[in-house]
């Protein structure tokens, strides 16, 4: 999936601009010890105008990570840093604006390839490969205000929690293992 990030260099204009912003911030190098991976809609080409850039990381020492994020990005527009618990796991999230993109840096003590954001992107990418007509349908729903996972679930007839439901669907379809 990392090659999706590299393909953004030559992708749509918004992908190229996002790639350039990430490079300018040097996030992937500055935070390389956390195995950062860009996830979300931009790498797989289902982004809309205000899509953010989600970079997930494996972080064992959240306090140190939070301090690093503050040191590196506190001077960026609308910087916020918070520590919370999601699905029983402690996480640190930093958000800020840079070059007209909202960045969300997300760290938790779990390998990136096992995190929901990565699994969702992998499932969504595979579904788009299997059925390219899904792309425009998802984008249309996103323009109507749907988040990505609920849009996929609506189109696939998956009920219940869309974040858990998409993972279950990906497992059933043999796309991911959890």
How would you describe this protein?
This protein is an alpha+beta fold and 178 residues long. The chain has two domains: 2-110, Beta Polymerase, domain 2 (2-Layer Sandwich), CATH 3.30.460; 117-172, no CATH class. The chain has helices spanning 2-7, 13-25, 27-30, 41-44, 62-73, 116-130, 134-143, 148-156, 162-172; strands spanning 37-39, 53-58, 77-86, 89-98, 101-108. A five-stranded mixed beta sheet has the order 1-2-5-4-3, with helices on both faces. Strand 4 and strand 5 form a beta hairpin. Helix 6 (116-130) packs across helix 9.
* Overall spatial form: globular
Instruction: Give the CATH class of the largest domain.
Output: Alpha Beta
Fill in the CATH topology of the largest domain. Beta Polymerase, domain 2
Strand content: 15-25%
Number of domains: 2
Mean pLDDT: 95
Helix segment tally: 9
Computed CA radius of gyration, to the nearest angstrom: 16 Å
- Class from helix and strand fractions: alpha+beta
As laid out across the biggest beta sheet, the strand order is: 1-2-5-4-3
Total strands: the figure is 5
CATH architecture of the largest domain: 2-Layer Sandwich
Which oligomeric form is depicted?
A: single chain
Largest sheet: 5 strands, mixed
Helix content: 40-55%
Poorly predicted residue ranges: none
- Termini separation comes to 17 Å
Reading the helices and strands in chain order gives HHHEHEHEEEHHHH
What is the topology?
Layout: H1 2-7, H2 13-25, H3 27-30, E1 37-39, H4 41-44, E2 53-58, H5 62-73, E3 77-86, E4 89-98, E5 101-108, H6 116-130, H7 134-143, H8 148-156, H9 162-172
Parallel strand pairs: 2-5
Antiparallel strand pairs: 1-2, 3-4, 4-5
Helix pairs in contact: 6-9, 7-8, 8-9
């Amino acid at each position: 999936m990392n090659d999706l990030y590299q393909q953004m260099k030559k992708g749509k204009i918004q992908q190229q601009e996002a790639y350039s912003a990430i490079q300018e911030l040097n996030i992937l190098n500055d935070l390389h010890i956390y195995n950062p991976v860009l996830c979300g809609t931009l790498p797989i080409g289902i982004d809309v105008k205000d899509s953010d850039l989600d970079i997930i990381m494996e972080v064992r020492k959240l306090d140190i990570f939070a301090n690093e994020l503050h040191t590196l990005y506190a001077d960026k527009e609308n910087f916020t840093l918070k520590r919370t618990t999601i699905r029983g796991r402690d996480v640190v999230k930093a958000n800020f604006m840079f070059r007209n993109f909202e960045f969300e840096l997300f760290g938790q003590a779990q390998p990136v390839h096992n995190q929901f954001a990565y699994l969702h992107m992998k499932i969504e990418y595979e579904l788009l490969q299997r059925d390219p007509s899904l792309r425009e349908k998802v984008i249309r729903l996103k323009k109507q205000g749907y988040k990505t996972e609920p849009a996929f679930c609506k189109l696939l007839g998956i009920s219940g929690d869309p974040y858990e439901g998409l993972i279950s669907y990906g497992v059933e379809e043999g796309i991911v293992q959890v």
